[in-house]
């Protein structure tokens, strides 16, 4: 398992948390997603054999948030 912390801008509320955690968590190969609103970070644990980091970033971007 790989673990990565991504700095994400634009998240400000509970809806943002649900949006990111729900969409990234639904990806095959993602075992956990945790959003830290205060830090502006998303921590993702995933199987790199099943999903790429680029796909995770693209999914966050598709929800309207920017990876910084």
TrEMBL record:
Annotated CDD domains: HMA
Residue span(s) of domain HMA: 2-68
Any one Gene Ontology molecular-function term assigned to this protein's record: copper ion binding
Membrane-crossing segments per the record: none
GO biological process, one term: copper ion transport
Keywords: Chaperone, Copper, Cytoplasm, Metal-binding
Predominant place of localization: cytoplasm
SUPFAM superfamilies (UniProt xref): HMA, heavy metal-associated domain (SSF55008)
Location of this chain's protein in the cell: Cytoplasm
Signal peptide start-end: none
GO cellular component: cytoplasm
Domain of life from the UniProt record: Bacteria
NCBIfam families: chaper_CopZ_Bs (NF033795), copper ion binding protein (TIGR00003)
Official protein name in the record: Copper chaperone CopZ
Species whose genome carries this gene: Mesobacillus foraminis
